[in-house]
UniProtKB/TrEMBL annotation, chain A:
GO molecular function, one term: GTPase activity
Coiled-coil residue windows: none
InterPro entries associated with the record: ARL2/3 (IPR044612), P-loop_NTPase (IPR027417), Small_GTP-bd (IPR005225), Small_GTPase_ARF/SAR (IPR006689)
Family per record: Belongs to the small GTPase superfamily. Arf family.
Domain of life, per lineage: Eukaryota
This protein's name: ADP-ribosylation factor-like protein 2
UniProt organism field: Camellia sinensis
Keywords assigned: GTP-binding, Lipoprotein, Magnesium, Metal-binding, Myristate, Nucleotide-binding
Pfam name, any one: Arf
Residues that hold Mg(2+) according to the record: T30, T47
SUPFAM superfamilies (UniProt xref): P-loop containing nucleoside triphosphate hydrolases
Sequence intervals crossing the membrane: none
TrEMBL record, chain B:
Main location per the UniProt record: cytoplasm
UniProt cross-references to Gene3D superfamilies, sorted A to Z: 2.160.20.70, Tubulin Binding Cofactor C, N-terminal domain
GO CC annotations, alphabetized: cytoplasm
Organism: Camellia sinensis (Tea plant)
Protein name: C-CAP/cofactor C-like domain-containing protein
Keywords recorded for this protein, A-Z: Acetylation, Chaperone, Cytoplasm
Classification lineage: Eukaryota, Viridiplantae, Streptophyta, Embryophyta, Tracheophyta
């Protein structure tokens, strides 16, 4: 293998991003991934384990790891941390009762050293539901202002 | 080689019979050098003997142990604030003890150092345990709620408040039924207000929701009956006991349910987690206009998924012991909400 082909290969690798989707159960992680990929979202069972989707976007290849959020399997999230470039934390903006749970799990996750280099996206899902909290309110409730200043984070909603 | 070693052997130079002015000077220097070390402040190195160190160590350990037991046994809610400072004091004594071991480790046998460090780490662990017992974290509170069979008692609420950081934002309540007993609760949803609904902290109530909904959250019900029209999004049920649910939804999740029956129509596979004695049967609700509502919510077709339950606490191929299919002989047969009931 010549030098050129090695460089080409590295270049290609750099265009590959590993995105980890996590959040409490019932927040809509699988639905978001399928929706972005233009697939049918009418029959989605709660995720037992994980799904991987590869999506091409602007010359980038996004490998999206959608990991189940049920309490029992949250302890397995850490198996997916290695080499994660982007972390998407999905929040059910209408599940007001479990926002504390959501905050606890998020801040717990962000303590993880292996994720310290990953960009964070807070996805305030289910904005279309009456009574859902706005992204600004979600920012306040999850205490995102208190996050490590070195981390790049963004709040997003559909 | 051997001769060289003999020459450099310091014992040889200390031999009193071997006196040379240079060596006498060196001996003097050596003894002077030892002086400041011996005359150092006796407090910082009071032991120099393994036994006296060990007795001091076990003394401190015992006092920390008894402090921890006292903290654990204190149940008076008024003493919460002093308890916190007590626990902090214990944590400081543990780190002092750790420092003590580190300071004296130069003369201690390595076995003793190892055992002392083990003791310290077990002390730290029990401090952590006591702290989480006395000031339960969110996670622990959740588990203990389950044990109290769905009814949150007062002390738990207080603990919870202590634990929460000052909320920077007050979360509003969802529309819903909450905190009631022995009531029949009825609500009809019209097409325009397809919102979400929350049902929580009910005892011996009957809830009838007709029309289409977007999402339902159910939390802490005891001996209730819940009948609902189709839900376009998901239903989340947590901490229920002795209840009957008749639900149609795209997704259904059930956590911490005990001895309850679920009559479901569901597009995807329903899941249970931390449940026991739950039984499943097909949806059996009827009211005037339910066919239209089911069609509108894309739930008009029986998928048979009501029986395809995934138990997250039982990831084996054999049937989970936590749920079963409701025998037809025990089924309620059908539930009808009459217009006059609405």
């Amino acid at each position: 293998m010549g030098l050129l082909s090695i460089i080409r290969k590295i270049k290609r690798k750099e265009k590959e991003m590993r995105i980890l989707m996590v959040g409490l159960d019932n927040s809509g992680k699988t639905t978001i991934v399928l929706k972005i990929n233009g697939e049918d979202t009418s029959v989605i069972s709660p995720t037992l384990g994980f799904n991987i989707k590869t999506i091409a976007y602007n010359k980038y290849t996004l490998n999206i790891w959608d990991v189940g959020g049920q309490r029992t399997i949250r302890s397995y999230w850490r198996n997916y941390f290695e080499q994660t470039d982007g972390l998407v934390w999905v929040v059910d903006s209408s599940d007001l009762r479990r926002l504390d749970d959501c905050k606890f799990e998020l801040h717990n996750l962000l303590k993880e050293e292996r994720l310290s280099g990953a960009s964070l996206l807070i996805f305030a899902n289910k904005q279309d539901i009456q009574g859902a909290l706005s992204p600004d309110e979600i920012t306040k409730v999850l205490n995102l202002e208190a996050l490590d200043k070195t981390r790049h984070w963004e709040n997003y909603w559909l | 080689m051997e001769g060289e070693e003999d020459l450099s052997n310091p014992n040889k130079t200390l031999d009193p019979t071997y006196s040379h002015p240079k060596h006498t000077a060196m001996l003097e220097r050596l003894s002077n050098r030892k002086q400041p070390f011996l005359s150092r402040n006796p407090d910082s190195h009071p032991f120099e003997s393994t036994n006296s160190f060990l007795s001091r160590f076990s003394q401190s350990k015992h006092s920390i142990d008894s402090d921890l037991t006292r903290c654990r046994q204190s149940t008076d809610p008024d003493s919460k604030s002093t308890l916190k400072s007590d626990l902090e004091a214990v944590s400081i004594s543990i780190s002092d003890l750790e420092k003590l071991v580190a300071e004296n480790s130069y003369f201690l046998p390595s076995y003793e150092v190892r055992t002392c460090l083990q003791t310290i780490s077990s002390l730290k662990q029990s401090l952590e345990n006591v702290t989480s017992e006395v000031f339960p974290k969110k996670k622990f509170a959740f588990k203990s709620k389950k044990a109290s069979s769905g009814v949150l008692d007062k002390t738990e609420i207080e603990n919870h408040d202590v634990d929460l950081e000052k909320p920077s934002f007050i979360v509003p309540d969802l529309p819903g039924f909450r905190n009631m007993e022995n009531e029949v609760l009825v609500k009809e949803f019209k097409g325009s207000e397809m919102g979400e609904f929350s049902i929580s902290d009910l005892n011996s109530c009957e809830v009838r929701l007709t029309g289409c909904l977007r999402a339902i959250f159910i939390h802490r019900l005891k001996n209730c009956k819940v009948y609902t029209g189709p839900v376009f999004g998901s239903v989340l049920i947590e901490e229920v006991e002795g209840c009957v649910f008749v639900l149609a939804s795209h997704q259904i999740r059930v956590h911490h349910a005990r001895a309850s029956d679920f009559y479901l129509r569901v597009r995807s596979r329903p899941i249970i987690e931390d449940c026991s004695g739950v039984r499943f049967a097909p949806y059996c609700l009827s009211y005037d206009g339910i066919e239209r509502d089911l069609k509108e919510s894309n739930l008009d077709e029986e998928t048979g998924n009501w029986a395809n339950v995934d138990d997250f606490k039982w990831l084996k191929a054999v049937q989970s012991p936590n749920w079963e299919i409701l025998p037809e002989s025990e089924s309620v047969g059908g539930v009808t909400i009459l217009n006059s009931d609405k």
